[in-house]
Amino acid sequence: GAPMMGGVPQQPMWGGMQGFPYGGYNPATQMNQFTDPNNTTVFVGGLSGYVTEDELRSFFQGFGEITYVKIPPGKGCGFVQFVHRHAAEMAINQMQGYPIGNSRVRLSWGRSQNNSGVGTPYRPAPPPPHYMGMPNHGPGPYGPQHFG
Q1: What is the CATH number that goes with domain 41-109?
Q2: Predicted pLDDT of residue 16
Q3: Which residue numbers delimit the RRM domain (predicted)?
Q4: Which of 25, 57, 106, 116 is the most exposed place for a label (fewest CB within 10 A)?
């Protein structure tokens, strides 16, 4: 029964412990690195210089209530801030590559104006645990105890 005692209880334990911090964290961190769940500002890139804020608003107001539309002069881009997050998500999904004026726009999340100074609430992923190397020693920890 020795191999069973040595091998079996150990594997699930180590496997489970390593799997946890990573499985649980990554999808969330990648999604939210630049997207804070309260952000409702859509960045519209690739605008032609002739589009006005009113025109831009008319393209996006179908998705939901808009807080403001801003087109900084001469930048070839604009910002549309929605009241609700899901409206902004829909706009990004459906207006991607849409021709406005005479050019196709590319959409992404803008930096929301009202809390630009505040960091996102997500902490970075934890550093890899220190015991990563230990399972390689297998029965190692039992060794020295025989002599004591």
Answers
A1: 3.30.70.330
A2: 47
A3: 40-112
A4: 116
